[in-house]
Amino acid sequence: MLASSGIAFGPYRLDSDGRSLFRGGEPVALSPYEYEVLHLLVRRPNQVTSKDALIRAGWHDTAVGNNSLEKLVSKLRRHLDAGNLNRYIRTVPRQGYQFVAPVTAVEAPEASVDMELLLAPHRAWAEGRVALESLQVHRIASARDTFQRLVQQHPGDASYQIGMAYACAMLFEATRADTVPDAEALRLAERHARHACALDPDLAEAGATLGFVLERTGRRADALAAPERAVALEPDNWRHQVRLALGSRGETRLAGDAAETPRSSSRC
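Request: output the structure for the sequence above.
Response:
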């Protein structure tokens, strides 16, 4: 396994300290999930890395399945060489993936930019996720501010749009029982969720997020369609299944009530 502050392959350099990928001197936009998976593959050149190991590297404690990993690897391949998808990453059937390009361990050059600036988005993203999972209103408000900064700094990253959408939706939930619920937070949540879907239509989490938001707007048909697409994209992700089940519970109950109405009338 290679250990260094940088790993070069082809025209690319993976900066382990800055958690960034560069082509020449230009940064390549990777999501935190994509970086972690690529980093593990590149550190094990010509070795087969199991799917389970790659999922743990990319998603940590979040339960996802092989379908999520396959889609992420497909995106990495397009990032690296859209004209030759197997140039860098090879699929080993029933085992995992293998990084097949020659690699060289290098010392990272003297940075021309502040490394803290490169690390800040990844750190802020992780802290924002932790704040959302706390379910504490003041921490969710802090997470919204964090994701708002990330969205402003990186408008093309769908993962930051998703974080912003969830933070806004959860703030709306906290005011749902108030005399005047925070409708503006819900409006912002929908806007950012839709933008995430537009940025990456094949990102299941974006569709699931949109469904979560739309269910709170009362638009049930759309609220069901979005998580249904997420499940279709990632059928082995239990989180999408739960969101779909929660969203469809009311529809199932209404359908059952409608089916029972004629029988009730006939007994009268």
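Residues 238-267 form the longest helix (30 residues).
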